[in-house]
Amino acid sequence: MATQEERLSGLEFDLKGFRSETIHAYGEMAYELVVVKGLGEDSIKRLAALQREINARFDTITDELSAHTLLLHQILDRLPPKE
Asked: Which residues contact 10 (CB under 8 A, 6 or more apart)?
């Protein structure tokens, strides 16, 4: 049977190993969270740029449709009335 000193040494060794593994696992987790955060921020920036581009295109299309509608009204006003 192991002496108290041997059992204590084994326990200390196990605790040091657990501590080392835990620190390593936390380090990996922190690295992965930083990567995920960076990807998320990049995605948000790209989505915001895409939204601005789509809004600009819609504004252009809306302006063109308004101009066409105005032109059609002007043409209709010049036509003779229906009998």
From this structure: 2
